[in-house]
Design a protein that fits this description.
alpha/beta, Rossmann fold, single chain, 13 helices
Length: 269
């Protein structure tokens, strides 16, 4: 007996390209919608079977969703700059490249280890920290970045508005917390106690990267010689990777090079 419903089904489900695009987007399958025309041409050229064609479309949708998730995580991380390790000048100053790329794998986050990046201003500490952060985000980790003075200001404001507990929880629960440029500005009196509470909550539960232009022996004086300093350093150093960068300021180097280029240009005119 012939299937008399088949023509009707074909008429009902025959969609134009524009209708199919709208339907896919209504189903929140924008990744498929964006690449459908290209994949159709590829399927025709390569003579792909239905499952291979469908696999390509599913891959496109998954890739789009992953890209959007990464972008959301970059925004919520609140990085100062979107620095990556492949744009770092490894030849300018002596840096333990192998250790930094090991940290970029994210294995130290899985192990709940920490990292301290120390060195003079301009040697690349923030670039490296944010490069590790970008690699961690692409590996699926959530990250939160704060310049040190902004972190302590945020906690002071939270304490004044009765929201300190919520702020401490936010800084304690994130898998990777980056505290950048510690020591660049004068610290409030509460800084040692605030940092101790955060480090205690994160100890062996999450990972922290701190960058500073001050050597560790200066930290007690920097924080006001309170007992809290020894307490948080003890926990921070227990499972920590120490990176000490020695060398000149890259920013001063770039400024000097630019000045020489301007002088040459002026002399040539």
């Amino acid at each position: 007996m012939p299937n008399i419903l088949l023509p009707a089904l074909r008429e009902t489900f025959a969609l134009t390209t524009d209708e199919l695009d709208r339907a896919l987007r209504q189903l929140r399958l924008g990744g498929i919608a964006d690449t459908l025309s290209i994949r159709v041409q590829q399927a025709q050229t390569d003579r792909l079977g239905p499952l291979d064609f469908l696999s390509l479309l599913v891959h496109d949708e998954l890739q789009r969703r992953r890209d959007r998730l990464v972008e959301r995580h970059i925004k919520t991380a609140m990085l100062r700059d979107r620095k990556t390790l492949d744009t770092f000048d490894w030849k300018f100053n002596g840096v333990d490249r192998a250790l930094i790329f090991e940290l970029a794998t994210g294995r130290f986050i899985d192990a709940h280890e920490d990292a301290l990046i120390l060195g003079n201003a301009g040697v690349g500490k923030s670039h490296i920290a944010q490069g590790i952060a970008m690699a961690a985000i692409h590996a699926g980790f959530r990250v939160l970045y704060r310049e040190a003075h902004l972190l302590f200001e945020e906690l002071l404001l939270a304490a004044a508005t009765g929201e300190r507990t919520a702020a401490i929880v936010k800084f304690s629960d994130i898998p990777l917390l980056i505290i950048d440029d510690l020591g660049m500005r004068k610290l409030p009196a509460s800084a040692a106690e605030d940092l101790l509470e955060i480090i205690m909550r994160r100890y062996e539960r999450a990972s922290t990267i701190i960058t500073s232009n001050r050597p560790l022996q200066d930290w007690p004086a920097m924080f006001g010689d309170t007992p809290a300093v020894a307490a948080f350093l003890d926990r921070l150093m227990h499972h920590s990777h120490l990176i000490e960068i020695r060398g000149k300021s890259y920013r001063l180097h770039e400024s000097s090079v630019a000045a020489r280029q301007r002088q040459k240009a002026q002399a040539a005119t």
